[in-house]
Structures are given as structure tokens and as C-alpha cells.
Design brief:
Elements lengths: L1 H8 L9 E2 L12 E5 L10 E4 L7 E4 L5 E5 L4 E4 L12 E6 L7 E5 L8 E5 L7 E4 L17 E3 L7 E4 L5 E4 L7 E2 L21 E6 L13 E5 L7 E4 L7 E2 L9 E7 L4 E7 L10 E7 L5 E3 L6 E7 L7 E6 L8 E4 L7 E2 L4 E3 L23 E3 L7 E4 L4 E4 L11 E5 L9 E5 L7 E5 L4 E4 L17 E6 L7 E5 L12 E4 L7 E3 L28 E3 L6 E3 L5 E3 L7 E2 L7 E6 L7 E5 L4 E5 L7 E3 L22 E3 L7 E5 L2 E5 L7 E2 L5 E8 L9 E8 L2 E7 L7 E2 L11 E6 L7 E5 L4 E6 L2
Parallel strand pairs: 27-31
Antiparallel strand pairs: 1-10, 2-57, 3-4, 4-5, 5-6, 7-8, 8-9, 9-10, 11-12, 12-13, 13-14, 15-16, 16-17, 17-18, 19-20, 20-21, 21-22, 23-24, 24-25, 25-26, 28-29, 29-30, 30-31, 32-33, 33-34, 35-36, 36-37, 37-38, 39-40, 40-41, 41-42, 43-44, 44-45, 45-46, 47-48, 48-49, 49-50, 51-52, 52-53, 53-54, ...
């Protein structure tokens, strides 16, 4: 397969600059498992939507940390194109460039953060398979400025030539279909370099646009435009000699405005959106500009005050275009449409309605779904003027009714996300009874998944922005607790703790006591991801469901659903999180990571006493959980009273006597998260699932013999970028495991039948 791809691109197989993703092995250890997605439907910010200019029904989504998707017009679904990718950094997509002549060819620039690996991907089968070209210039698919673009462009008059506007290392060029790259020395801005530490990153070069009318087929285009979103005097450069020399475009907008996106029409009009920030945050000024590239005359065609980003031209009707606001401008964000080159505009928000019944979390507990924010991926189908899509901070909307924009009938938008699972999952739990899965997400709260194939409503009453912890009572699994971050949709009280006594069908808000002198911030003043140690404290529940423990700096306990609270006694100041025994309702544990001392309570977490412990590794402190989303390395097994596991940096340790003695498991797995599922037939204990590394391979593993041996259960076709965050094992279906990823939502596997 790869040989034919090399031949088509005309590149030597032995080119040292090219590495190829490993092919799927026929004897993969996990080949006996089948994998599916737990359906949520979208869920995250997707900065770019790109139609193929030459093949009808072909489009791509570039997500900021969840990979590439391709629209399958026959299946009416988006297909993830990087599930076999084992490199976590490649899940952040900086830019996508469909070939402007051959619809089967597509390129992508990938690299989630500037500190990670970066590459150019290329495919001659619409992304079913990729060739990977590692590159030295850094990318930031999930950094500020990811709304700009497209940075990667193919010359329509010579498709061997590609340009890439990098963030930190100037303008890059390839003359061999992306196989090798070199910096354009003549480009005036070499790049500001990769900033150190957590310094504010740079956006770099925001787009590359070829003027197709400036060249002939096979000879290449002569005129090229490059936008610059870095601070400086000039923000638009032009070459009229195929990139040999460059000059700033005269009379450009004020230097305080940064160019975001640009497209050129057949008459040589270059349309550009501007904002006073690289976005998608902190935008409050901007413009929509039109440059006549033949005369050099600029026209301000802004439909409103404020910043703009998303932009698309109607390729069927000259002078028809859409542009999206970013940052709210004079009200909620909207998309403006013009049919006369920007002389007059119509706002689509006021003449639109949305049906989000297929993805109900988009209601956010309100009567109607929002039009959207961070509208940066905006595209009119080049083959159908009525078909348009736009991306938001939470979904992708689509309609075939754009040409009704001036009619009295509202435009109907629906979520265009079938197949898209682009979310960051924080926590999960699979209770012994009730719904098979309870999930907690970043940005979109969480869900009770009664049917894994149906998008559920968001968990509410209270609703969280982030759900940080979920726990259930092992002996009374109908009792579930969760903690999270304030949501603006909570009314009238902002709860960040909740419990359910009916398996998550209904919920009750819970408030732990605040210390004397603590000033509670009003709900409308609490910022996103507030991070207060009292407001955002985690919660656990006893095995019988009667006792809740909230891990504020001084943990508190309630046995009457929050009517009264008692402080725990006997714990040191810097202990780790409290763990409930899964079999004995009175027993709780806490580990002091500084001294490797285990504290045990036998009275429902009211008092703790230090207990002598043997067998823990020497570097216990290295596993201390920091931050509300961290993994607790001390885990209680449901098999019996007093069974504890510790996830060490060098392996797993197990105790069967309440933590008095720990013994290293023999399997050799170095894990970072684990859970217990239904036991195998005739097995002595629960099936153990873990995320970790064995013999250097990061994967999803299971053990049927309490960690003595491990089997990998995912194969090379289901790597999911190896961005694994959590694992939850089904207590009722043998072998089923749920895996939370950072960017690819929740996937689940079970033995093939």
C-alpha cells in the first residue's frame, strides 16, 4: 500500500526525511476486540471546516486536539482518520489542505503543542492512510491562534508545490508534494522562535493564498499572499514571482488588527477577516476587508463593529460570501451574508432556528440552543450554494437552506456531527447496576449513558462545566456522587457537588460547609475553571451509600445527605485523597505521600489512625495526586474488604489485608489508571483493566489473574493517539472496557463474538 503511495508522489522510498506510520499487524494482540465510540456527538471546539474544491460531497474537519475527520457522503457521517495514530502530538491539527486538482489527495499539518512532535501528513486516498513527514518547525494545533488559516496551501497550477505558514519558524516550502521542506529565506519574517516556559505563544503566519489567475497549469502560480498574525508593522505580504521576492501590501489596515482568514475570488478580490487578537479569546475589535489585487485598492466592508474570523466565498455566485463575528461584537456572535461583495449584509442569527434534538446537550438546560461562539470554521459547499456548515466551541452546525437567507422562512440548522466525538474526558465510572456508564467531561459537564449509541442529555440539577470526580456505592450502586465546576446554567444556586439515589435519573445539589471568614463569590462572578479548593473539592461515597466525604483542605463528612457535617480527625495536613473501601462501609483510607504512611478509618471517615505499612515502593511521593482532575493512585478493589492497589511509577502493588502489606504484581505493567470489571468464568477475582506501558508499548491492558499477566486489548488500528486518560470496566459484561481519551471522546471495547 505504501509503495504505491510513494510511487504516486514520485518520492524515493529511502528518503530519510519520511517516516511511515506502522501498518496494521495481522497478529495484533488486541485483534480479538471490537471497538466503538460512546455517542455524545461533537462536544468540542473544531477550528476548521474545509470542503474539497474539486470533489462534490467531500469535506474535512480539523480539530484542535481530536484529530482529522472526513465527511462520508454515502454514510452521512464523519469518519475519524487517525484512530491508528500512536503519536499523541499528532492529534492537534494545525491546518488541512485538500489538493485543488485531485480530490483523492489531501495534506495536513499536525502538532498539538509547540513542545511536542510536529509533522506534515499526506494521503492519496482521502486520509484512509497517511504518510508522515516529521518536520522541525513547531506547531500548535491546540494553542491560541488555532482559529486562523488555512496555513497550509497547495499551488493550484503546480500541485507539487506547497507552502506552510508556520507559527515560530517563518514560511516553509515544499516542491515535492510535501516530502521535504525548506524555509523560504527571502520571506521577510523569519519567525519569532519558540517561546520558553508558559510565555504567551505567537500565532505566526495565519494563511497562505495562491492567486490561480496568476499562473498556468504546470507552470505554477506567480502571486501568493501570506498573512501575519505576529505583532509588527506589516501583516500582509505579497509575492508576484512565485515566492522569489516578497513585499508588504501597501495601505493595509492598522497594525493593531491581525489578519485571520482569507480567500480570493476569480476576479482577484482578496477577502480578509481581521481581529485585534490571534483568537479565539480576547477579541473585541476587527474588520472585514476586501483588497482588489489588481489595483491595490482596499475597501472596508465590515458588517458590524468588532472582531471577525470565519470566512467563506460562494464559488457558484461571484460576490456572495459569509463572514462570522468572534467575541460578541455588539451582541451574541453571528454569521453575516452578502450577495454584493460586501456592500450589504444580512445577519443569519436572527433569521435562523436550530433543532438539536439529536444532540440534546446543546440545550445546556435552556429552552433553545445558542447560535454559537468561536465561529471560525465556516464554509459554503463549492458545489451547492445552499449548503453551509460552521463550527462553534461545542459543535458543528449545517444547513442546506442558506439561499433562503433573505426569505421569510427561518433557516433550519442541525448539528452536523454524526461520527464526531471530539471531547476531553476527565472521569468515568461504571456502576454495578443501572446505567452502564457515568461520564464526566471538560466543558460539557457529563452524562448518564443508558444507551451507548444515543447522545444523552447533559447531567443537570446541578449542571457542571467540568465534572472532576464520580463515585458510586459498591453495595448500593444506585447511589452516585459527583463533583465539578460551576456552570452559568445553574439556577438559582451554584452547586459543585451532587448526589443521586436512583442511578443518576435525578440529582440533588450538595454544599459542604465553608470555613469561618471565607467569602463566597457570587455565582455570576465565578469564572470558568475557578479552581477554589473548597468550591471544587472532590467527593467519595461509602460502600453502603450512606456516608459522603468531601475533600476540602480539611475533609468533611456527612451521613445525612448534607444536613450536618463533621470534620475528619487524625489526618496530616498534606495527605492524599480519601478512598472508600468497596466492601466495608465503615472503612476509608488516605495516604500521606510525603511519608508513605497509610491512614485508616473504621468509623465512617470520622477519625483516622496511622497504620504500619510494608511493601510500598520507595518513591510513593512521585504519585501524589495534584489538581482536581488528577488520578488517585490508591484504589480499592470490589472483591473483598481491605483489598487495595497502589499504582506506582514502576508497577502495581496489591494489598489484601487493608494496606498492612503490599506486594508488587508480577506482570510488569507500569500503569497510570486502573479499574475492575466482571470476573472471567472460573476466575478468582475481578478482571483488572489498566492504561499503561508494557515492554515499552503504551496501550489498554487487561489481566484475568490479579496482575500476574497482562494482555493488550487494543490493536494498531485503535491507538486513539495513545492519549488515554481514564479507564472504566463494566461490572456486568465480561471483557467490556470504557476508555476516556483526551480529544477522541469515550471509546469502548469488548471481546469479538
Amino acid at each position: 500500500m505504501f509503495g504505491s503511495m510513494f510511487a504516486r508522489f514520485g518520492v524515493a522510498v529511502l528518503a530519510v526525511c519520511l517516516s511511515v506510520m506502522p501498518a496494521r499487524a495481522a497478529d495484533d494482540a488486541g485483534a480479538h476486540y471490537t471497538w466503538k465510540s460512546v455517542k455524545v456527538g461533537g462536544g468540542g471546539y473544531i477550528p476548521g471546516l474545509i470542503f474539497s474544491p474539486v470533489e462534490k460531497g467531500l469535506a474535512y474537519l480539523r480539530s484542535d486536539m481530536g484529530g482529522i475527520y472526513r465527511w462520508d457522503d454515502k454514510a452521512k457521517a464523519w469518519l475519524p482518520l487517525q484512530d491508528d495514530n500512536p503519536e499523541p502530538s499528532y492529534r492537534g491539527i494545525e491546518s488541512i489542505a485538500p489538493d485543488p486538482v485531485d480530490g483523492s489527495v489531501v495534506y495536513a499539518a499536525v502538532g498539538v503543542y509547540r513542545g511536542g512532535a510536529a509533522a506534515i501528513l499526506r494521503s492519496n486516498d482521502r486520509g484512509d492512510h497517511w504518510e508522515t513527514v516529521p518536520v522541525p518547525f513547531r506547531m500548535g494545533g491546540n494553542e491560541e491562534g488555532r482559529d486562523l488559516g488555512e496555513r497550509l496551501a497547495v499551488d493550484p497550477n503546480n500541485t507539487s508545490v506547497l507552502y506552510f505558514g508556520s507559527r515560530y519558524d517563518g514560511l516553509q516550502r515544499s516542491a515535492d508534494k510535501g516530502a521535504t521542506w525548506s524555509k523560504v529565506a527571502s520571506f521577510p519574517l523569519p519567525g519569532l522562535g519558540v517561546p520558553g516556559g508558559y510565555a504567551r505563544p505567537y500565532a505566526g503566519l495565519s494563511f497562505v493564498v495562491f492567486d490561480p489567475q496568476s499562473g498556468t497549469k504546470g507552470a505554477g502560480s506567480k502571486t501568493i499572499f501570506v498573512g501575519v498574525a505576529d505583532p509588527g508593522e506589516h501583516h500582509l505580504y505579497r509575492s508576484d514571482d512565485a515566492g522569489k521576492t516578497w513585499a508588504p501590501v501597501a495601505n493595509e489596515p492598522p497594525a493593531s488588527l491581525l489578519p485571520g482568514q482569507a480567500q480570493i475570488d476569480a476576479k482577484g478580490n482578496l477577502y480578509i477577516t481581521y481581529a485585534n487578537s490571534m483568537g479565539p479569546w480576547a477579541v473585541n475589535d476587527g474588520a472585514v476587508m476586501k483588497l482588489n489585487t489588481k489595483t491595490g485598492v482596499w475597501t472596508n466592508i465590515s458588517p458590524d463593529k468588532g472582531g471577525f474570523m470565519g470566512l467563506s466565498l460562494d464559488r457558484q455566485h461571484e460576490g456572495t460570501l459569509v463572514a462570522a463575528t468572534i467575541g460578541g461584537n455588539s451582541g451574541p456572535d453571528t454569521i453575516y451574508r452578502s450577495t454584493d461583495g460586501g456592500a450589504h449584509w444580512t445577519s443569519l442569527r436572527e433569521i435562523s432556528k436550530r433543532d438539536v434534538s439529536s444532540v440534546p446537550f446543546l440545550y445546556w438546560g435552556e429552552k433553545e440552543a445558542e447560535f454559537g461562539w468561536w465561529i471560525t470554521g465556516l464554509a459554503i459547499d463549492p458545489f451547492d450554494s445552499g449548503h453551509i456548515g460552521y463550527t462553534t466551541g461545542a459543535t458543528v452546525y449545517g444547513t442546506h437552506e442558506l439561499t433562503n437567507a433573505d426569505a421569510s422562512k427561518p433557516i433550519l440548522w442541525t448539528p452536523w456531527v454524526e461520527g464526531v466525538e471530539q471531547t476531553a474526558v476527565i472521569t468515568m465510572s461504571s456502576p454495578a447496576k443501572g446505567a452502564p456508564l457515568i461520564s464526566g467531561f471538560g466543558d460539557i459537564g457529563g452524562f448518564v449513558h443508558w444507551d451507548l449509541s444515543v447522545s444523552p442529555p447533559i447531567t443537570s440539577n446541578p449542571m457542571f462545566t467540568n465534572t472532576n470526580t464520580i463515585d458510586y456505592a459498591e453495595k448500593a450502586p444506585n447511589v452516585i456522587v459527583r463533583s465539578g465546576t460551576h456552570s452559568k446554567h445553574n439556577r438559582p444556586v451554584s452547586y459543585t457537588l451532587a448526589y443521586s439515589t436512583d442511578s443518576g435519573k435525578t440529582w440533588n445539589g450538595l454544599k459542604a460547609p465553608l470555613p469561618a471568614g471565607y467569602i463566597e463569590i457570587p455565582q455570576d462572578k465565578i469564572g470558568y475553571n475557578y479552581g477554589d479548593p473548597y468550591i471544587d473539592a472532590n467527593i467519595v461515597v461509602s460502600a453502603d451509600g450512606k456516608t459522603f466525604v468531601v475533600m476540602t483542605p480539611e475533609p468533611v463528612v456527612t451521613a445525612d445527605r448534607g444536613k450536618t457535617w463533621t470534620k475528619t480527625d487524625g489526618l496530616p495536613a498534606h495527605h492524599g485523597w480519601i478512598v472508600a473501601d468497596r466492601a466495608d462501609a465503615a472503612r476509608f483510607y488516605a495516604l500521606d505521600y510525603a511519608t508513605a504512611t497509610l491512614y485508616v478509618s473504621t468509623d465512617g471517615a470520622r477519625t483516622f489512625k496511622a497504620q504500619p505499612t510494608a511493601g510500598l515502593p520507595a518513591n510513593v511521593a512521585a504519585r501524589e495526586p495534584n489538581g482536581r482532575e488528577a488520578v488517585n493512585p490508591l484504589v480499592a478493589s470490589p472483591d473483598k474488604k481491605g483489598e487495595l492497589w497502589f499504582i506506582g511509577t514502576d508497577g502495581l502493588y496489591r494489598s489484601t489485608d487493608g494496606g498492612k502489606h503490599f506486594v508488587a504484581t508480577a506482570g510488569g505493567l507500569v500503569a497510570y489508571h486502573m479499574d475492575f470489571g466482571k470476573a472471567a468464568p472460573h476466575a478468582k477475582g475481578a478482571t483488572v483493566f489498566a492504561l499503561g506501558s508494557l515492554n515499552g508499548t503504551v496501550a489498554i491492558y487487561r489481566s484475568l489473574d490479579q496482575g500476574a499477566s497482562w494482555q493488550r486489548v487494543n490493536d494498531s488500528a485503535h491507538e486513539y493517539n495513545r492519549a488515554f486518560r481514564r479507564v472504566a470496566a463494566d461490572k456486568n459484561v465480561f471483557g467490556r472496557v470504557y476508555v476516556a481519551t483526551d480529544g477522541r471522546g469515550i471509546v469502548y471495547g469488548e471481546p469479538a463474538k
